[in-house]
Amino acid sequence: MTGELPLPARPRLVGVANFALASLNRLSVLPDTPLDLDALTETARRQTGLDDFGDPWFLRPMEVLIEAIRAEAALNDLGHFAAVGQFLKVLRERLWTEHWFNTHEDIEAEPLAPPVIVVGPMRSGTTRLHRLLAADDRFEHMRFFETVCPVPRPGFRPGRRDPRPRQAGRLLSTVHRLNPRTAMIHPTGPFEPEEELGLLVQSAWGMKHEAQWRVPSYGEWIETEDATPAYRHLARLLKLVRWARGSGQSRRPWVLKTPQHMLDLPALLQVFPDAKLIFIHRDPSKVVGSSCSLVWNQMTIHSDSADPHWIGEHWLDKTSLQIDRMQAARGGIPPHQRIDVLYRDMDADWEAVMRRVYHFLDIEIAPALPGMRRYVERAKGQHRWQRHRYELASFGLDHRTVRSRFERYASDFDLHPRPAQPEVRAVVSGPRRAMA
Q: For the chain, what are the domain ranges?
């Protein structure tokens, strides 16, 4: 099956980077760190001079992920270089995390207020809803640099110069140069509101890895495991992020969101039992198509063997699992803790939707509206000259197949596409033309 819209070619700079890294490897210029858990943990200990990783639970998902990458991901030189770097970064930050908690016991002692959590599939409008809420300074929200670099190095002091925004900015700049489409699919910047995905990455947990690498055995494994330890560590990291801002005693609730929550609602609610959940729903054919496009855009950087039809099949199944698990867990959540909104309604009148949300949260919306309107205007500017384009057919899928897979879900939330309204023309008498 061939789509009318061809898949974008991989940026030439990726090929240049692969060639350069292969040359440096042949010359033994780069450190030879194998993709091996024991070697990586030993390197991280040596680099930091620290030894305590905290709860060793995370080593098992990391081991499964590394094994899956080695067996299934078909990494190119750039992909291998990036994978080693990512694992070493996580391991160093796990060591730094325990350093901070061991030397500042007050960090973990401060409780978290019940958070407000946006829940929806990948590419369902969770980012827009999250950023509207983040525009309200009565909430705390993660910023991009804190998601990418959640743990400051030893020696850091709250309120003093923080090198992490510049570090995150350099990383973002590199990603955008390697693949400019990333900026179009998910515009962001070092201080922009961002999801807490990086806090789950600290436990080697979640769909983020499946969106980057072809690792189906890892995905199947975590689908059968209890996510509660990963969410407990996420809550600890939220306290550390708050302390690093110099707001250790803030009682403002966090606004959280990441599509991983769709799969892990029981664990999420085990850790945050009083959370308020905002579920967002979108036409599943749009969710699947946009997800496949995002995954293709990332996977082609790390592997020369990315298969769009495999991506289509895998993310159709993954989206189905997200929705099935969400539906199963949602029914057990008390009505006073949840509300449902539609992507379509956000497009038509976001302000009316947010008024409903704030009524549900029992918070006055008026103080938040100016910040929300500024965000909407900025977002319009970001998207004025660029649009994320994709087609299901590019991934071996079609609308009938996808919609039949999600018929019950689409009916439950009225997600079927609305028929186009017939064009109405008014005819004006006299010499003037008919006006559209």
A: 12-155+162-412
